[in-house]
């Protein structure tokens, strides 16, 4: 060995030694810092009220069982622990909140826009669509999609809402006098409406795939809920080899099959020069589908209020395809993700909301009669379709609908990942950064401090003077703040037309008292015992006319 190579070797050895001398303290320091942070995290977490857990697994056992059992267990927990509940699922901290003052800190703040990790189970289905995307992608897509639910666009859908409402009445007329589950009818109807309106696919080109799609979505929601509730189904590699993993592949075939077909047809239609611009303007008195959420203004209100003059607009899928064709960054995959998102969010929520409404009308005949009285005043003896202006007159029906959404919010919880520590306004507790925070809408809507007799169905809870007095975040069926539901106005308008059409045609009965409802949160809140109702035609010839 030469002197020169010895010098080089010595230098290398000393560099290696220096590296280790620096690395080891850095690692130790890093570990100590992580430990201190973790200790702080754990200390803060353990100051929050919640059930005692076991070493290592924490409260994971509380999440075992089917979705009906876990929903019922969580309702019981919420009685025991009040408005803040802490759970450990192994090392992961999950905190449920319900007080509107705390909810406002999360939903009203644009720091906490990122969805929690649990939403990743939606990815094989919805990809990076609006519901789960984050950062710049979410921001730019929201800006693109929100105007496709502009009031002008919604007004142009009224005719289709009417035609489909009438069609579902004709289908349900076959159940005359029998007790049946109305959810499947509502589900199929809302899928078909979405296809015709937001997707612009004409009825002539539709087939039974709407029904098959709705049924596949229901089963997918079940699987997604199971993945959240059952810890062993969480790791992808384990999930894939279970029967649920295999079933998911088949269900996604049906779901994506329909969305791909819809996009293909729309592209063909547009390339044959058939682009449907919507031209209409809003009268000042028609500035909103409802005034129910006017204290919680969001981007949807701003776009309607700031609208001046007559503008050409495109419905959702037309705009998506035009944007992509104009070369703005929107890939075919992104279009598919957004179509899947709108199809899911837009149908299952309204199907559940309308089914709860019908059961409640069946149970509370007095309120049903009052709705029908209001409808008689609007329509008299005529069975003409509803206009947009008519829906603004359906004030009592709207209150009945809002009350159904209060007691049985179709989206019962909303989860976010905390981006920084949050000091809760209700108790002063600090919830540390990194926590999965769950807004328990279903509980917020039943707090005695904010609602008189919260377990009693009372449409007067939504009288404008009562709503104005209440905390704005005490009624959040559509979430609130920058990440509120983009389809809120669409949903309310569509529901008013479907439900008023049903009540004009049928007297609705339901015999099961609310105390016997078996609630199940399969992502969307449903009744495990089924949405059983009975119908009786109001006029003999109504469906024949
Ligand atoms: C009664 C009917 C509906 C209810 C109760 C409802 C409720 C909600 C709620 C609570 C959220 C927030 C979810 C979360 O943050 O995890 C949401 C988001 C969303 N909803 Fe709805 N929704 C309804 C109907 C609709 C309709 C008809 C559409 C579309 C046609 C729609 C499209 C969306 C989209 C795209 C999002 C994600 C928005 C974003 O993250 O920026 N929803 N909805």
Automatic annotation (TrEMBL):
KW Hydrolase (keyword) present: no
Keywords: Heme, Iron, Membrane, Metal-binding, Monooxygenase, Oxidoreductase, Transmembrane, Transmembrane helix
Name of one Pfam family that matches: p450
Cofactor: heme
The keyword Disulfide bond is annotated on this UniProt entry: no
Segments traversing the membrane: 18-36
CDD domains in the record: CYP4
Annotated GO MF terms: heme binding; iron ion binding; monooxygenase activity; oxidoreductase activity, acting on paired donors, with incorporation or reduction of molecular oxygen
Binding-site residues, heme: 485
Family: Belongs to the cytochrome P450 family.
This protein's name: Cytochrome P450 4g15
